[in-house]
């Protein structure tokens, strides 16, 4: 096998090792490459030689420029020397200028220092003179000017040696401190005297002077005590008149309202004065004090409210009544339809003494109204003072620490929130405690009102389809819910909704369940649907169903009708509180489904125990002496007589008349749905056992159409879908021959959705006597 030698193609000429070549092809290739390279180099050399004259001419031009370049280089050197000297001179001058600037700055600083010392000396001596002459305004102004002098000057040696005089030998810092202390004592006393004398001019005058002597926090506190005393005085006057005016059902809520209005008026009227002399944001310290005063005065008002309204005694009385009621809970508490007479919708009305036993509902209702007003006004005040405090805090956020310290001077920041007010307000705590009492009374009154409505329940069979308890109960519920929303407390609303639902479940829905059970306990199932008291029993039961249907509607409307009140109410935290309230109101929809479930069960029970046993006899009577195997003359005679349709209409009218007359439209429609389900099922069973010929099938189709048309006239709730199977049976029975099914089945069915199975189709076709049984059996479907 010949050896394989690598070629030199692609290897540069200068890297080849020609001495090591042994292959003749490589040698020839290298030789050829060298020849080509030699030819290329010769050509390049020829080109260079042909341009020799051009290169010589270019070099000559450069020789001409050489003397000029020499001169330029020398000039450049001279210029660099000049620049260096100029730069050095400029640097020397700049140093001198900087030195002069520093000396000038020191001189100006010294002059300012001396001037400030002179100003300090003037202020110290002027303060003493002004105080001796009792010119306190001037003294305060001079003290303010002195306080603006830097501490390094005040405490410096120059001030220490130059400012003191024989009349004022003390250090100027001590002199100013003593002056501040003396002026503060004077201003405080004069301010207090002005307050006692009710001298508004002096009150304003001395209030303005406190910030001049650096006592902003103290001045604001003085002013806060002044306005708080105004509020306290007005509140005391209101309470002193309480024994005369407390008969008013909202007297204490009105006093509390006037307290809040007085505070709001003071904030609005006095804020410009505070901001003008103390700066923006400083009103917050006054608002903080007013919040504390509102807690104190409101607490006094609420204490008087508890004492006058005897709230604690009423709560104890309610508790005793509740305990007594629990002990006697074994008594059957029911009304209409559950008394000794099962056919009567309501028992005999109880005596007035039975109904009004216990705490006076009118007094309790008045207390609830006043408590709701107190809570509402408290929420309004909280919203107002919170908003005003937040406005002040926004201003203070961009202020220096000193300004912010004035607001919180002497206060524990742990007890204050982001709005600068107390996190735990005494007023809010008291109102929460009162709202617990509110819920106890509300629960008691709600149960009493519903119990009374159920005991006095009655209805007029001529004018109404529901008994009186539904409107009475839901009027109370609407009033209770509306009152809870008026408190502007989301927790109260949520708790009230829970109370309503709990009371409805135990004192309303449970009674309807008992009435329905009692109605069927008087039914004799062995008598094939007849009742011992047919009219009274059924009517009582249907009225209960109507009550349930109306209760479902009212339950849903409770939440819907409450929405405008929720939107109009004033909430402390708009977004969060409204979310809590709407979540609570949504419970009514869930509770409505419980009523709906009981209603549906009641309709089904009515259908199963009373109506359904009468469906089969109705059809049996309607089909008496009716057949579907007819000759032509029999068909014509049946077409005129319409025995089945007439009997069916008569029997069905008799069956549903009392329900159509007594039930609401919705209940009757739902009951009709159940009746039609049972009727169509019964009719299908009858048809499946009947024999037909062509004339009979035509007669059946007409009967079916007439019955559907008749039933459609009874209710708007009729669904023709219930007759789909019967209609499809009629289609099958009216075929000319069994094979016609292929035009309606499978791919050719089109929009038709067959409800009959293949076995049922064949069974129906087999009912035609004139169809070949084997042909029907052999249909491929």
TrEMBL record:
Residues 24-51, 83-110 form a coiled coil. Residues 176-517 form the COG4 transport protein middle alpha-helical bundle domain. InterPro entries: COG4 (IPR048682), COG4_C (IPR048684), COG4_M (IPR013167), COG4_N (IPR048680). One of its GO terms (biological process) is protein transport. Its main location: Golgi. Signal peptide: none annotated. It comes from the Eukaryota. GO terms for cellular component: Golgi membrane. Keywords: Coiled coil, Golgi apparatus, Membrane, Protein transport, Transport. It is found in: Golgi apparatus membrane. Pfam families: COG4_C (PF20662), COG4_m (PF08318), COG4_N (PF20663). It is a peripheral membrane protein. Residues 332-351 are annotated as: Disordered. PANTHER family: CONSERVED OLIGOMERIC GOLGI COMPLEX SUBUNIT 4 (PTHR24016). Belongs to the COG4 family. This is Conserved oligomeric Golgi complex subunit 4. The lineage of its organism: Eukaryota, Fungi, Fungi incertae sedis, Mucoromycota, Mucoromycotina.
């Amino acid at each position: 096998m010949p050896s394989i030698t690598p070629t030199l193609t692609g290897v540069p000429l200068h890297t080849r090792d020609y001495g090591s070549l042994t292959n003749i092809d490589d040698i020839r290739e290298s030789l050829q490459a060298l020849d080509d390279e030699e030819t290329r180099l010769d050509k390049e050399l020829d080109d260079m030689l042909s341009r020799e004259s051009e290169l010589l001419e270019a070099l000559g031009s450069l020789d001409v420029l050489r003397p000029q370049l020499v001169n330029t280089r020398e000039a450049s050197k001279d210029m660099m020397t000049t620049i260096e000297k100029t730069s050095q001179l400029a640097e020397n001058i700049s140093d001198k200028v900087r030195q002069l600037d520093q000396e000038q700055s020191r001189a100006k600083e010294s002059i300012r220092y001396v001037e400030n010392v002179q100003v300090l000396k003037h202020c110290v001596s002027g303060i003493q003179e002004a105080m001796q002459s009792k010119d306190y305004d001037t003294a305060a102004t001079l003290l303010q000017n002195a306080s603006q002098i830097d501490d390094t000057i005040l405490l410096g040696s120059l001030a220490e040696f130059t400012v003191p005089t024989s009349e004022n030998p003390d250090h100027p810092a001590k002199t100013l401190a003593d002056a501040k202390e003396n002026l503060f004592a004077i201003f405080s006393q004069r301010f207090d005297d002005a307050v006692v004398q009710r001298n508004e001019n002096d009150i304003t005058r001395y209030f303005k002077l406190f910030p001049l002597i650096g006592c902003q926090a103290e001045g604001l506190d003085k002013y806060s005590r002044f306005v708080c005393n105004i509020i306290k005085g007005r509140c005391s006057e209101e309470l002193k008149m309480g024994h005369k005016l407390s008969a008013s059902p909202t007297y204490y809520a009105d006093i509390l309202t006037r307290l809040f209005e007085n505070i709001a008026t003071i904030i609005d009227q006095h804020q410009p004065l505070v901001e003008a002399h103390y700066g923006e944001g400083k009103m917050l310290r006054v608002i903080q004090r007013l919040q504390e005063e509102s807690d104190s005065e409101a607490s006094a008002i609420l204490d008087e409210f508890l004492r006058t309204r005897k709230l604690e005694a009423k709560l104890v009385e309610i508790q005793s009544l509740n305990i007594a009621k629990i002990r006697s809970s074994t008594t059957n508490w029911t009304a209409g339809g559950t008394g000794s007479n099962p056919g009567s919708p309501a028992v005999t009305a109880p005596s007035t003494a039975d109904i009004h036993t216990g705490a006076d509902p009118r007094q309790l209702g008045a207390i609830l109204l006043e408590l709701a007003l107190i809570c509402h006004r408290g929420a309004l005040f909280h919203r107002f003072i919170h908003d005003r405090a937040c406005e002040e805090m926004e201003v203070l956020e961009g202020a220096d620490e000193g300004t912010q310290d004035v607001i919180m001077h002497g206060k524990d920041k742990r007890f204050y929130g982001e709005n600068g007010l107390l996190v735990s307000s005494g007023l809010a705590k008291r109102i929460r405690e009162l709202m617990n009492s509110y819920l106890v009374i509300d629960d008691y009154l709600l149960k009493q009102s519903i119990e009374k409505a159920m005991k006095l329940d009655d209805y007029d069979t001529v004018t109404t389809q529901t008994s009186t308890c539904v409107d009475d109960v839901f009027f109370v519920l609407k009033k209770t819910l509306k009152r809870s929303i008026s408190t502007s407390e989301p927790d109260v609303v949520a708790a009230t909704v829970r109370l309503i639902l709990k009371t409805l479940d135990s004192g309303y829905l449970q009674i309807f369940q008992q009435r329905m059970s009692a109605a069927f306990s008087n039914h004799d199932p062995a008598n094939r649907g007849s009742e011992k008291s047919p009219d009274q029993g059924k009517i009582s039961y249907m009225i209960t169903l109507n009550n349930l249907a109306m209760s479902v509607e009212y339950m849903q409307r409770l939440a819907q009708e409450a929405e405008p009140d929720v939107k109009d109410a004033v909430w402390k935290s708009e977004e969060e509180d409204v979310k809590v309230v709407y979540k609570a109101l949504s419970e009514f929809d869930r509770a409505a489904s419980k009523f709906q479930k009981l209603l549906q069960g009641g309709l089904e029970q009515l259908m199963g125990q009373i109506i359904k046993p009468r469906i089969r006899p109705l059809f049996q009577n309607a089909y008496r002496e009716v057949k579907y195997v007819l000759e032509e003359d029999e068909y014509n005679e049946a077409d005129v007589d319409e025995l089945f349709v007439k009997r069916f209409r008569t029997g069905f009218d008799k069956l549903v008349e009392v329900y159509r007359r007594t039930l609401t439209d919705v209940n009757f429609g739902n009951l009709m749905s159940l009746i039609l389900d049972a009727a169509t099922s019964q009719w299908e069973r009858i048809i499946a056992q009947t024999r037909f010929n062509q004339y009979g099938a035509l007669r059946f189709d007409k009967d079916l159409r007439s019955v559907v048309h008749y039933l459609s006239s009874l209710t708007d709730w009729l669904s023709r879908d219930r007759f789909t199977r019967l209609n499809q049976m009629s289609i099958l029975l009216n075929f000319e021959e069994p094979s016609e099914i292929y035009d309606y089945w499978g791919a050719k069915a089109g929009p038709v959705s067959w409800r009959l199975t293949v076995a049922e189709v064949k069974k129906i076709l087999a009912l035609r006597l004139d169809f070949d049984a084997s042909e029907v059996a052999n249909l491929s479907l």
